[in-house]
Amino acid sequence: MDANESQRQFLNGCRKGYVSAVMGARCRVASGDLETDWIQWFALFAGETSDWLAPSIGEGVLLLCPSGDPSQGIALRGFYSEEFPPPNEDPKKHVREYGDGARIEYDFAAHSLKAELPEGATVLLVAPGAVNVQTKSATVQADEMTIDAQKTTVTGSMLVKGAFAFESGMTGKGGAGGAVMKIDGGAEFTKDVIAAGVSTAGHKHQAQGANAPTSEPIK
């Protein structure tokens, strides 16, 4: 091998460049007057556990070329640049920011995890077994929320501060002092109410005579 070829291999062995094109799991890298053919880029995991995040056009990479041959090159990603600056510079935070503005941040000094999604984004969690959340307090803020379940059980007390409506009937049992329901205020019913088998709207009494109390309701 002559000295020129040896020098070429040495210079091509490790070069800084940027991604010029992406196609599937391969990319092209431009470095000075060199542009590679389609080569592989490093992913965090590529076995039974795999990771996918395609590089961006213009993303800085380190081009590693075995034997100085760019056709066998591999792009090692991860250089910040003016075009792609770091999303945060706090050494106590781990931040991941996506091209559409979505952002996931964990502050391990404050023990705080925050995920922010852009307008119109959706979240889908699929767990065929079960989802368990353990916390001291939880708050859900939404314009509308639907619980789509065959059966829902609330093991503790429940307070509804807004208007409460139900469909398909309601039943209950127990309660303080044996009262299933206690209403502090008036109630309006559009149809008859049956209490202990007696119609409140259509029950009758047996007359007992002038100025005498009426009988118990006649069922």
**Amount of helix:** under 10%
Mean pLDDT across the residues is 88
**Overall 3D form:** rod-shaped
Label the structural class.
mainly beta
% residues in beta strands: 15-25%
**Low-confidence stretches at least 5 residues in length (pLDDT < 50)?**
none
Q: How many individual helices?
A: 1
User: What's the count of strands?
Assistant: 11
Largest sheet, order of strands side by side? 1-2-4-6-5
Please trace the helix and strand order, writing H or E for each element. HEEEEEEEEEEE
Largest sheet: 5 strands, mixed, barrel
How widely separated are the two ends? 113 Å
Radius of gyration, taken over Cα atoms and rounded to an integer in Å: 36 Å
Outline of the structure:
With 219 residues, this protein is mainly beta. It contains one helix and eleven strands.
Features:
219 residues; mainly beta; 3-stranded antiparallel beta sheet; 23% strand; rod-shaped
Overview of the structural elements:
With 219 residues, this protein is mainly beta. Helix content is 5%, strand content 23%. It has one helix at residues 3-12, and strands at 14-23, 26-31, 34-35, 39-41, 60-64, 74-79, 93-97, 103-107, 112-116, 194-195, 198-199. It has a five-stranded mixed barrel with strand order 1-2-4-6-5. It has a three-stranded antiparallel β-sheet with strand order 7-8-9, with no helix packed on it. A hairpin with a 2-residue loop joins strand 2 (26-31) and strand 3. The radius of gyration is 36 Å and the shape is rod-shaped. The mean pLDDT is 88.
